[in-house]
Write a structure and sequence with these properties.
The chain contains three helices and no strands. The protein is mostly helical and about 80 residues long. The mean pLDDT is about 75.
Amino acid sequence: MRFLNLGALSLLSAALFTGCCCSGIDAAREAARNAQSMNNMMQLALNVLNYQTVHETWPESLEDLREFDPNLDALLANP
């Protein structure tokens, strides 16, 4: 009765270890997705500003957003 079933103990420890590793891996993947999303947004903003500098007007798709955002006119007036 004093002996533990080593197979069950190793299976339990493997399950706990896997659970801890998976949460760490998921956190790392989420951080990578957030960093990539932030980089994509920065690239988009830089491209819009570059377009405005070269063409001295905002892209047409940005102009169409006025109906959805009443503050957009104030933002576009101050490039």
